[in-house]
Amino acid sequence: MTQYYLSKNYNVLNNAGNKAKRDIEEILSKLGYKNAGLPQTTYSNKIAGFLITLAGVLKVLFTISANNVVVVQYPFKKYYSFVCNIIHLKRGKVITIIHDLGTFRSKKLTAEQEIKRLSHSDVLIVHNNRMKEWMESQGYTQPMVCLEIFDYLSPSVNNNTHEPNQKPIKVIYAGALNYRKNKYLYSLNDVMSKWQFELYGKRFEEDKIKDKTLFKFKGFVPSDQLIEQVSAHFGLIWEGDSIHTCSGDLGIYQKINNPHKASLYIRCNLPIIIWKEAALASFVAENKIGVCIDSLEELDSILSSISAESYNEMVRNIKEINKKIASGYYCKRAVENAESLLQLT
């Protein structure tokens, strides 16, 4: 069988979702998959991007034949169902890799609508077992494979080291920094005294911070540069309004979603701090690559109690996972497992 993926126009290069999709295209290409559409482009003009992606979708009609396999990355805007129907019309098979679920992320789809749409796929690659269970609870019946964690391709290497007992303990957060999206950032003054917070991203509203001495705002730094230059002890994964729990829509989404920033932190050799109820917490705990917490109020005491031996073990384990995600290991394994399931259908 001939194997394909479908490329498109990516109009925002620095977007985390686009980074994940472009990485998967590169991994699939190295696995011998061919592009069924037009070459990947990065036009910022919306009309140009729309026309190029549409032309690539239509090209599938002339590329695919019986028994071919096509990997489609989801969401794929308006085209997903149309692309799947074309592939099936040509008697091909579809493997879908989920990046985001509209039911949670954009709220533009109901669960019923999303399940109906994704049922066009022959095999689905989901983030983790929690997402798989949610899909099944909503009536999804097609075969599924778990990715576990997103790979993160970059030529950059982090050679910085931090002694576990070095003070202050430095924690970084990379992502959206505005008050509306991550209100909890602006309440951290109330619970932090023994660690320092370094923020990477855009739209940080410094005027809303009580004590600025505990914060270092680094601004937006491209991921390759961040991997090379960051020097800290931990990377934080937390979303929502509250320091007590991951709240709001984004907090709820953490219960089934794999944040791409986790892979970025791993590439930086940073052990991860994550909400205990997050789907990725089990991966962090099982691989001993960080700490899982109920509330950010716990951080002062938890970070102070971590021994040098425990911290160094986390870093050693992180470096092993780093090698895997730098090579595309998790995507390769998931796609190979999906191909095996296709042969059974």
Automatic annotation (TrEMBL):
Any one GO molecular-function label of the UniProt entry: transferase activity
Record flagged with keyword Disulfide bond: no
Lineage of origin: Bacteria, Pseudomonadati, Bacteroidota, Bacteroidia, Bacteroidales
UniProt keyword list: Transferase
Pfam short name (any one): Gtf3_N
Limits of the Glucosyltransferase 3-like N-terminal domain: 4-149
Limits of the Glucosyltransferase 3-like C-terminal domain: 171-338
SUPFAM superfamilies linked: UDP-Glycosyltransferase/glycogen phosphorylase (SSF53756)
Top-level taxon of origin: Bacteria
Record flagged with keyword Secreted: no
Name assigned to this protein: Galactofuranosyltransferase
Stretch forming the signal peptide: none
